Each structure stands twice: as C-alpha cells, then as structure tokens.
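Need the bound structure for adenosine-5'-diphosphate, inputs here:
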Amino acid sequence: MFRKILIANRGEIAVRIMRTCQEMQIKTVAIYTEVDSHSLHVQLADEAVKCVSGTGYLAIDWIIQTALEMGAQAIHPGYGFLAENPVFAAKIQEAGLVFIGPDAQTMALMGDKAKARETMVSYGFPVVPGGTGVVTSDEETLQMARKLGYPVLIKAVAGGGGRGMRLALQEDQLLQSLESARSEANSCFGNQDVYLEKYLVGCRHVEMQILADNYGQVVTLGERDCSIQRRHQKLIEESPSPALTPELRARMSEVSHDAAEAVRYRGVGTLEFLLDQDYNFYFMEMNTRIQVEHTVTELVCGLDLIKEQIRIAAGEPLGYDQSDIRLTGWAMECRINAEDPVTFMPSPGKIEYYRPPGGFGVRVDSAAYSGYTVSPYYDSLISKLVVYGQTRVDVLTRMQRALAEFSIRGVKTTIPFHQRILADQDFQRGEFTTDFIQQKLDSDV
Ligand code: ADP
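Answer from helper R.:
Posting the output first, comments after.
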C-alpha cells in the first residue's frame, strides 16, 4: 500500500480523500494556491505545498515534481481540474508514480464523448440516437440534424459540467448553436470538436456506478438518479432511482458491467444514461473519475469508494464479487452552493457563521467553516448534504429536517432552493425528469 499520496485538488473532495487516507494510515500532501492558504484541505493534510505556478491545480509538471520531491508514491486527482486528463495520467506514470484512476488510454478513449459513443455502438450497447463522429462542416451538420429530426443537441467531445452544449429546437437555430457550442468548447476545453445527438425530451438522468480491479473483476453498485438539474448541472442526486424496477436495474447493471469489461476499465467509473418515458435507456457518456455524488452510492452499498479506488490503484484485487454487493435503504444528496437561491448568481465572500446539521442518517461533506472565505475563482459548491434512511419517505423528512437545521451566514446559499424542491409534491412522489426545474420554477433559471 502507498505510504504517501499527493492530492491534486481542493475543497470538499480533497478533504474527503484525506479522511480516507487517514483511516488507511496513508500520509497526505496537499497542494494549494495563494487564495486557498486558509482552506481546510491545507489544515488537514500532513504536509502542504504552495503552488507558485499561475495555473494552480492544473500545473501538471509542477504537481508531479512536487509529488516526487515530497516522497509520495501516488497522486489522487479528485474530480474536475486534471481528473480526466490523459496527459496528466501518462506523465505521472512516466515519472514512476501511480495515477489513482484508470490508465491513460482508457481515459483518452472514454473522455472523448464522440469516441466513447462509437465504442459503445461497436459493442452493441444502446446509445442516445445521434450522428457518428465529429461534425466537420455546416453542411454536414445541417444534413445530420435533418436526419435526426429536431430538437438536436450539439455537444463538445471534451464537454463537461454542462458546458460546450447547445440545443437547437429548429433548423434556423442550428448554425448559430453550432458556432456558440464550438466557441464555448474551445474556451473551456481548448478543443472545439462537437457532435450531434437527438435531444430526448422528458428523460431522466440515471447513472450506474462501477468498480473494476486490475484482474478483470467488475462490480456494479447500483444507480443514481441525477435528474434534478439546472442548466444540465446536477443539484440533487439519489440512490436508488424512484423510476427503476428491479428488472430494469438488472439490465442497466448488466450493460454497465459488460461495457466496463469491454473497455478493460480499471478503478471507479460511472456510465451515464438517459432513461426515456418508455423506460428505454441510452448510454450518454462515461466519467472516468470519482464523482461529486459518489456519496449516495456509498450510503446504500456501505463501501468507501475512495478507499476502493486507492486499493485498486495499489494493485489490490477487489476481493469480492457481485453476489457480495448488498444495496439497502435510500440516500439523497443536496449540493449546497454559495449562490443566490433564486438567481443562482455566485455569492462568494466570508462565511461568518457555519453550523452543519447532524444526527441519525446525516452526513455532510464540506470544506467550509466559520470564518472561511468562499473564493470567486473556484466552483461555488460549499457543502454536500447527504442523508440516509430505510425508505424514500424517511429520506425526504430527514433531508427537510437537516436543511432547516443547516445554518450558514455571510454568503447566500441554495438551501432555500432545495427546501422548495423538497416540498414539491411531484418531487415527493418521485415524478420528475431533467426539465423539472425549468418547468417548476422559472424558465429563466
Ligand atoms: P456534461 O458532461 O457536460 O455534464 P452530459 O453529456 O453528461 O454533459 O449531459 C448533461 C445533461 O444534459 C444530462 O444529464 C441531460 O440532462 C442533458 N442531456 C445530455 N444529452 C442529452 C440528450 N441527448 N437529450 C436530452 N438531454 C440531454
């Protein structure tokens, strides 16, 4: 097992990883930028190194050099930043260190959404109807969109976090949407390649968590329903999904298992699907990293996914198979962001007072504390409020209780927004699709 790991991230996920490392008796090295000097991940790490490079958590060579100098054997990328960058993974390996994640080739394959689609098609797995490959000209885009039928979605091959994605409801919007998808993709990801998908209306986002070791053992850990989204970004996630029957879950698990096996996947991974109203499911993309919402899976399966990720990276076999996996109870996560709860404008600044909820079945993953300043330079997630119960009804009442108990002063937060959703009768009945927020609230948000 590793003796020391460098954590190439910040915020709640860096803290989350450190907690597991401590339990595994692995020393941690934090890296941080000037604005993060007082961050919790710096305080909780065994050692911390300040980044002098302007690129901060994206400074590939500096991060690897620091890991070597500090005597770490492995680097955990968390999510975001370099977590899905195959160049980073390859360079770590070249330096004789271990990247905690899949190998660079698999990341390159699955990280390119168009290639991932084609790979899934080649194995006969169901994918969202769409074009094959990247579109190269306006003419080709027009023809492909006509063939698919409107509305169509233009998606960046390198896209993530809902960026590089544009909807075209009809033909006269297509070329403008193409242009704006390309330019956003270029500025966010340095890659302007895009492809087309049919836009499926009234779907759920259901994703399957998988774990795979170096020796061909793959297990699936059930699904997460992430349909509560704003502008294609997840806000509430739960496991199991209120929409899945045991038969459908078994079929989606099987496809996910087989897909992971087909690409010889290693580590933790997520296959994202869209589920239409007729309960057909279509592969959308694969995330080759730990996800923000991994917490809800941990609560229903009882495994520490970061620990599993580290064990797999260290070359340990899983040591269990699918028949050992027991999914019990219900879990839900609300992402608490430092944002205005109505306009969703970021609300950075000093948290004057922070008192998280507690009690039975409540987990809070956060890097916030009283006196902490939320930086405008990074994402606005301040806390993940995760609750567990035997049934969905238990979870709904517990989440409402926990949201009411959560006290954060000094910055605006999305707690009131979550309270509105939790009080909604359709949400309570488990009846919602990815356009829920747009329909329920205001089309502007
Ligand atoms: P990103 O990687 O940027 O998060 P995804 O491909 O995961 O992008 O899509 C994010 C969200 O956008 C999905 O959860 C879903 O709500 C919506 N979406 C993506 N593709 C489609 C589609 N073809 N039809 C309808 N909605 C879609």
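Comments: Residues 171-189 form the longest helix (19 residues). The CA atoms of residues 343 and 445 lie 6 Å apart.
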